[in-house]
Here is the input.
Amino acid sequence: MKNLRIRYFIVLIIIIFLGIISRKIDFIPLCFGDFLYAVMIYILVRFVLIQHKPIQAAILSLLICYSIELFQLYQADWIIVLRKTLFGRYVLGQGFLWTDLVAYLFGVAFAFITERIILKKLLI
Here is the structure.
């Protein structure tokens, strides 16, 4: 299990790097960054809750992503100030978009399916 956690951590770092790079390159659509954000959340949930079933991680990941997106509708002064920081911009986002919800769904589904395929091949 420790070996699997190390693999999740390495993948997590790679996904974070790709997500940051995707925001710096103009020709990459913004929804790709949201897709990677959902993949990152899934990997992070799997890293922390490694003993749980992958479907549980997928559902929890979607709930986290959707909650953060819906939280962007909240516009109190203190949260606006927080969202202007690097941490706030990357973690909390800047504005609500319905398309982000779709990108999160595809990102979590991609991570879930990819993990199932990879783990199946590793265990055979």
